[in-house]
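1st attempt posting a full record on here, be nice pls
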Amino acid sequence: MTEDLTPAEAYAAARARNAEQATALAPFRELYEFGLDPFQIEACQALEAGKGVLVAAPTGSGKTIVGEFAVHLALLQGRKCFYTTPIKALSNQKYADLVKRYGPGKVGLLTGDNSVNGDAPIIVMTTEVLRNMLYAGSQALSGLGYVVMDEVHYLSDRFRGAVWEEVIIHLPESVTLVSLSATVSNAEEFGDWLDTVRGDTEVIVSESRPVPLWQHVLAGRRMYDLFEEETDHGGRAASRREVNPDLMRLARTENTRTYNPRERRRGKMVREADRERERRQRSRIWTPGRPEVIERLDAEGLLPAITFIFSRAACEAAVQQCLYAGLRLNDDDARQRVREIVEERTASIPSEDLHVLGYYEWLEALERGIAAHHAGMLPTFKEVVEELFVRGLVKAVFATETLALGINMPARSVVLEKLVKWNGEQHADITPGEYTQLTGRAGRRGIDVEGHAVVLWQRGLDPGHLAGLAGTRTYPLRSSFKPSYNMAVNLVDQFGRHRSRELLETSFAQFQADRSVVGISRQVQKNEEGLQGYKEGMTCHLGDFEEYARLRRDLKDRETELAKQGAAQRRAQAAASLERLKTGDVIHVPTGKFAGLALVLDPGIPAGRTNGHRGFEHHDGPRPLVLTAERQVKRLASIDFPVPVEALERMRIPKSFNPRSPQSRRDLASALRTKAGHINPERHRRDRSAAADDREIARLRTALRAHPCHGCDEREDHARWAERYHRLQRDTRQLERRIEGRTNTIARTFDRIVALLTELDYLRGDDVTDNGKRLARLYGELDLLASECLREGVWEGLNPAELAACVSALVYEARQADDAVAPKLPTGKAKAALGEMVRIWGRLDALEEEFRINQAEGVGQREPDLGFAWAAYQWASDKGLDEVLREAEMPAGDFVRWCKQVIDVLGQIAAAAPKENSTVSKNARKAVESLLRGVVAYSSVG
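the predicted structure (as tokens):
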């Protein structure tokens, strides 16, 4: 190639090479065995030029290399670099990677429960740790040159997302920000905001995966490609991908078939040939079992694989199913290596705890190359699974979606059992963003030529919907930023109220709200132009048609209102008549599928007529259980009784009557027909319409007839234009209200929080009181409750174990609400203190309502959850792991995680509590020592 260059071109190329060699990027590139991708080079060059960068690229594309270049630049310049991640597991992993490259002397780790080499020039930390350092004005910020925010798209997280925005807004201007994100559809919008708050920021978006991804559906014995790749005459793949027609045909056939082997044609058996054809068809299509799927992937060379199952219990069950099926994916050498690694990593765990943790069953599965991975596992166990998977010693992992959140565990294949998951409130379809995140694990760079995403066939699967998930590779980044009490006192302390308000107005949340207002404002302008046109169309030469149209609308609204009142009155009368029914009443069901004669077997009135609980709710009305004259036993609803019902007769129901017995039903129905079959029910007479006697309706009708426009020949044409005018005017007012609601929303919420804190004497104008300074050191969802408990001395006199129990209520949240059983609590002082905490929360909750601080919007204090208090008390009282886990009915991983969160808050309380005339600070430190033992201590990565 160089021989073809002219002397001038060769000279220019040589200069370019020399210039590149003089950059920091050149030696950095030599650290990697592979060449950098164009988007990585572009981002690194922008960083070296002094710009901030936002890199949005698919999972597994290598965007962290840009973050590592920031580390490289910081060391070259003699400055610090903080590398932040959203979860501790990611921090631990990144710490290990950087130590391997730069040595333990240059790298530190801060994750709340771990502090390793905190003065190092490179520190890996969770984002919350950096936020707390910024508010505390930590000395560690001195000399900070770069901050890498890995997985910055976490700012969409409704629980923790605000932390990312706080950090971005409050970092010193001298710090260069490196934001690494999954592919999001509004990267430019996010980049514009970063440009506004951080200065010159380069947005680099890459949508190409480094390893191509093939999408499949596994149905029965056949693996279908999801897409049929179309090619042009040059043999290149076309940009438009069609769904595989074979898969579409299969879906139509399967989803429309309603075959039931017990079904019989009237008078005939289903023909044997039909049944045989049905059996053959069904034998081809089924949802493969978990061991079957792994065997199939193994046979086709598609392991290692991660199977995503949206349930912890199901992940464990899947491992057991593979063991029972005799699945073995490792040879003897691999089994021996697995055992050596596992024994080395778990050597510090006492032998008595191993049995409690299910160690031996877990080890057996690992030796076979099979494992589960979910948040309920002990952190040490999860880390071992991750290490073995990366080494190729575990080939099949069954995981919940938490594994998809950035942990470096790439696989050749990813399997999705279902496209529906429980979101905490209901079973919902996974989103395109979630699908992209999950399937992004498929395809290991430098190892696999291609990755594979396999969705298991389920009855009702829509290939078109799946293609939409697979084809929509991006999702929008939406801010979840909301001010908190702790944020408010910290901001006012540093900047005063006015400047704090201005800072909050620079949040991404307000930036997005303001941008959406621009579009709405444009729509309002268009609507106003349309209103002018409609006004001309309804102009009448006889008078003011707008006034006439208003009379017509008022008349219609009044008639509708009276009709609704009449219907509500009839429903109330019908419900009251149902409440009067008794067992043995013979009634006539007026309408519906079961209209006709019926005998009341049970009036269906709930005991105590309670509201707000499951079952037959009183607001739905009584649900009488009846026997119809046609021998059917059915529970009716209020919809079956549009008019009141009266008992026509009374009958005695035999004690021997069994509603499940056809003979019993037949005998009682026969007696019913004999007793009341001749009675003709009275027809319910409808009451005179309220509209007939309504004075307002009479007045409006008189005014309408007297109006000049009533006699216009084109009245109905004008009326149609007037109706359009009214509808558009109503829509325009709604848009204007939306604009008003979105403008200064963050600042308005901040004002309400400041007003409440002023009421409680945490703030006095721009001054933060001693109470406020205490609150400034308490981070967490229940920051204000913790501060009030300290102020009122609720925890004074508690021993360390009792204090741990109380503090657990500030952090713990049950995975599923269970109000049926009250949680077990420690007795004595701890129980009294927990009760006092709930009382204080009730007072704060009432105050929040008064100041219009809405928990539904993510602001305010939720009710403390006492569900972990007994477990925390037991563990801090030196009880054994077996006893604590058995009584808590909680997986070891959850137990460790909640203990660590309690330890974190206890550390904050130790720092915030008064040092004189108080036992709280000393006992909080002792409680930390009591909790930080056994599994809780050795599950920390150091």
